[in-house]
Design brief:
The complex is a heterodimer. Chain A is α/β, with parallel strands linked by helices. Chain A has 2 domains: about 160 residues, P-loop containing nucleotide triphosphate hydrolases (Rossmann fold); about 60 residues. In chain A, the strands form 2 sheets. In chain A, strands 5-6-7-3-8-9 form a 6-stranded mixed β-sheet, sandwiched between helices. Chain B has one domain. Helix content of chain B is about 80%, strand content about 0%. Chain B is globular. The relative contact order of chain B is 0.15. Classes of the chains: A alpha/beta, B mainly alpha.
Chain lengths: ~230, ~230
Amino acid sequence: MSAVAVEGVWKFYGDYPALRDIKLEAGAGACLALIGRNGAGKTTLLRAMAGFSRPGRGRILIFGNEPRETATRRRIGFIGHGISVYDELSALENLTLYARLYGLSDPRARALEWLARTGLEKVRDGLVREFSRGMRQRLAVARAFLHDPSVLLMDEPFTALDDRAIAVLQSLLRDALARGKTVILSTHQLREALELASDVALLVRGRVAFHGPCTPEMAADPGLVYARYGEA
Amino acid sequence: MEFLRLTMVVLFKDLRAELRTKEAINASFAFALVILVLFSFAFDPEEDTTKAISGGLLWIVFAFAGTLVFNRSFARELPNDCLDALVAAPIPGAALFLGKALANYLLVLAIELVSLPVFGIFYNVHWTRQFPQLMLVLALGTWGLTVIGTVFSALTVNIRLREVMLPMLTYPILAPALMAAMQLTMQLIQGNAIGPETVRWLNLLIAFDVAFTAVSLYLVETVLVG
């Protein structure tokens, strides 16, 4: 059974089809890089996979279940465009909150563990609104990994990250992949993404123009997929 | 038990965030105070008619002030896309709604309890004569306001003019609850206990609260995810 299966998914905004008959699969331990120009449908697809919206047609299955099922949501970690942490709470309070929402045992210990893993233990009681952008991004990464999800969905996770945050994220993603987790990430930072990716899917105007393994050629020349399968 | 635990997590998160920033509670309390004072200029506190309509005025103030709290309820989740993380978390939409509604309820109730003595002074009303019954009406009326305010806060959270849309959508629906609360409050602050003639308003208030709480809990998942 695939970790993530997208079966003939259409998504409409009014009459406009943002996703058109999308068919994708990602197995356990796979890293699928979703690439495409702005407006290609990457974010829409990731949001539907995360259960934020329902497809107009077709279906998405995470380990054979609908994304909105409570048990499935426990297995998904999501990083979107926003960092999804509260400015008026401290780093520790934020992570403890999410640990409680995910029903983790000893939420405070888990939060402290992830603050240490992302290098934020010294500022654990600082309010997020006082954090630098890089620190906020690392906290967002900690939030997404906190409950040890089986599927990580990441919408342009490398955008606006500083070098340290990119290194932290890449290290965590490598570790997750080595432990059999599935990663699907959309990106414009092809080089960083293709270093990790086992598979690549190119979206063009809501359709899958290419879906296949990430070859050494692609990793060496990130523009290759666009040149071969994208629009001029 | 798990549902209740998650409801409490959301409730305490919202209260902690609000008490740290005091955005909604300060604005709402200041607004309630200003409206109460302005209305007192418009009506002579010695007039019997003023005393007769003062219960109605009170609920208008509560409804206006409450809207400021409800507006912030889901809007608080917008910066940093926190609503996405809440919707993605394995928490029933009903628990999320109930946690937020309870936080709003406590905030609005606090504003009302502070506003009441101010109301008593400016309108020369001895509002404590039927204190326990008045508290009951306050509790029921405020829950009605809160349930509708919270669910429409979720519905309008992504609308650009949500501050305008929220009262426009909620006040017509709140009409029966407000009418019942006003009628009961007018009687109670004049010293008349709830009797056979006014009990139907209390029944209406209870029925409103039960019906709209059930509908909101049922619909909130659809409101949040579509």
